[in-house]
Structures are given as structure tokens and as C-alpha cells.
Amino acid sequence: MIKISAIKHSKYLIISCLLTSLFTVVSAQNLLPESNPEFQFDYALPEPIDFNTLQEAAEWADVVAVAQVVNVDYQKTRDLNAKGQAFLTVRVPYKGIDKNDLLIVSAKGFEDYQCYYPDRLGEGQRYLVFLKQSTENDSEYHGFKPFCQLQVLLDDAGLYNLRYPTDTNIEFEENLIKDVTYQDPNALIDGTEWTSIKRQEFQESFKTELITEEDLFQKYFYLKFTQGIPLSDIRPLLNVKRQAKIDSDQM
After folding, report:
1. CATH no. for residue 88?
2. Within-domain flag for 169
3. Chain centroid to CA 158: how far?
4. Cβ contact 95:158 at 8 Å
5. Confidence of residue 122 (pLDDT cuts 50, 70, 90)
6. Which residues pair with 173 in a beta bridge?
7. Number of domains present in the structure of the chain
8. What pTM, to 2 d.p., does this model score?
9. Across-strand partners of 152?
């Protein structure tokens, strides 16, 4: 019985090794760059531009889309992002990309305009993105704040809205700006640890509603966005024709 058990155990080990090797080969062929130490990311980043309109931003960009954060992989120096990548899935394509495509957005440096995305919490934040494609790698892109991440939020009807006020200096026509009841968790900002002055300044700048809660131990302060521009009204402002994605060989 001992010999039979030993033979069975040996066969099990051999099969396990073969399966592991096969899995390794298959995985290597489909390896995401964030898991591949030999992948060379492109850090030739564009200088920031202060566009006056969304159309100007769209003309500059190779890719325009609403995309959702899947993951971020950043190296840090003293708790500050130093370089790395964000991985986003395209939800609404406008230019140079298809729905459900993966966007790898590289960033490097400590300047405020570097395109670092926040850590994914829950389902991941959504953004209207304007990005340049890397000349070295397909699916790798570059951008700069604020135009690489204009926040998009879901309303109570499940529709996308560009959060207003935006982080840009672009002036939008008043008739485009709507009062919105957001059901998106990212529409609520926890300002409990802020000073009252900071909460007031944020509230005035972003037209937010102040919500207070309390328990036996503490009082909590939240700021909720209340305005937006429906994406159906944003599309005409982009003035782009639907374009298929391009690869680096076509550039």
C-alpha cells in the first residue's frame, strides 16, 4: 500500500508540475505589464496645456473616452507618488478607442499636473479622459491634469454627468449646467477632518451640499456635489467623429 501511495503521489506531483508550467506559459503570453518586470514603460510625458474648450482638448488627444479606474500601481517616495501606471477600462468611447478596451496611463514626477489617479475604492471612479498614445507601446497613454481625469458621476437615473464645477478653467453655457441628484458614492466627500474654513471654501468653490451626521462620539461632515452636465450635452462640445483606435505602427 505504501508503494502504491508513493506512486500515486509521484504522479500527482508530475501532473501538478505540468499544469503549473502550462499555466505559467499561458499567463506569460497574456501578462499585464504591471506584472511583467521586463516590460519597458514609456515616460516621455507631454507638457501641460490649458485648453480653452473641450474641443481643443479633443483635437490634441489621440483618445477621448469615459473610463473607469481598475487598478493603480505607483512607486512612492515619502508617501508621494513618484512614477507608475493606472489601469482603466473604457466605458464610453468617443475617439481612438473601443468600449471595454484597457488604457494604461503612465505618470512620473511630483508636479501637480502629473496624471496620477486615486486608489480604487469600491467600483472605481469614472473620468472623462483626454490622452496621447505612447509612440512606444500600444495601449499605453499619457496625459496631464486636469484633462486626463475630469470626474464623471452617476445620477439617480443611472446616467453619466460631468461633475460641475469642473477642475478646468473652461466656461460652460449656463443652460448646460443642471442640478443633479447623485447616487454615486464618489459624489460624497468626507470633510470631517477638515477645518470649518476649508469646508466652507470647498462648498463655495464646488457648489456642494453640507451634510452632517453624529453619534455618541463624534460629529461628521460630508460635502455632496449637486451640479453636473449630462454627457449627452458634452458629446457635441467635443466635436469629434467616431474614430477607431490606432496602434503605434500607424503613428
Report:
1. 2.40.50.120
2. no
3. 19
4. no
5. confident
6. none
7. 1
8. 0.81
9. 126, 162
